[in-house]
Amino acid sequence: MSKKRLLIHIISWLLFSLFILISQREQYAYLSTGKFMTTQLLILLEMSIVFYINYLYITPKYIIKKRETLRFFGNVFLLIAFGFLLSLAIRSFHSWNTDEGAAFAKIIRSSLSSTITISIFIVFSTGIRLIEQYNEYRINQAKLKEILKKTELEALKAKINPHFLYNAFNTLYALAETKSEQISAAILQLSFIMRYLLNNAAAPQVSILEELKFIRSYIDFQKLRVDEAEEKIVANISEPTTDFQISPTILLSFVENAFKHSNLVASDQKIVIQFEPLEAGFDYRVTNQIAKEKAPESGLGNKNLQKLLELMYPDQYKLNVWIEDDIYHANLYLNLKS
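Given the sequence above, the corresponding structure tokens read:
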């Protein structure tokens, strides 16, 4: 039993005891305060013993763990019999303590009538234990769901970042192959990008302003290997006036896929990246002409993005990806207020 639950039980029993002592005092006015307190506390002890034998042992063992209904009721019957014997002993003590010398038959009848109260306490303890078990189950399921969610998110991010690395090293290879003077700048740019991924990719939330800075760096890195880059890669990224938090790297998939499935060496190829901030979200669009030798279906980025969004922003996003006239369109709308 947890400390919190133990405290609740103690307070509940104290309040119940106080209620019994106050409500029953008038009925036993002929007893002195000491004798009345002793008798009532013994009866409360009897009820608490019956309550916790069922609460701690019978219900957990035969209902929760084994689900053996017949054995449960058999043990409950034995518990009621045990409660009757306790009641008999207490009432015999009461008769002796008050010098009334009550007839044994009267004591038996009184003890039998107390079995109704005992049965009520057993039903009550069973109900409380089952409710607590159900609440424990719900809490554990919620914790398990959260653990699985975090595990899946980490797994998805692990899929995205190696994909980015693969594309990045392809860029460095292309620059090295042509002996470009820009290779040192490209390595420096990649260093900044990798530092961001190392520091933020595993974080639950990052600043949208930092994420946009990262995306600009990624675009600038890709521009290094493209002739006439400013005409072929158009980035219209507007910063939001108010900063807010988003899941890291969710803007990366669109631009990754755009560069992967385009052939910017060809004169007619073009990538357009647009980011429009909203009051509490954004409208993010990327379009690119599809290179004939590259199939957009092979990219994993947007599939992973879909899973990330389902986990992080259910009912808060719209993701649309389509092909029209050999142009690949990707649109993400995110509203964090909904």
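The chain has nine helices and seven strands. Try to locate this feature in the token string yourself.
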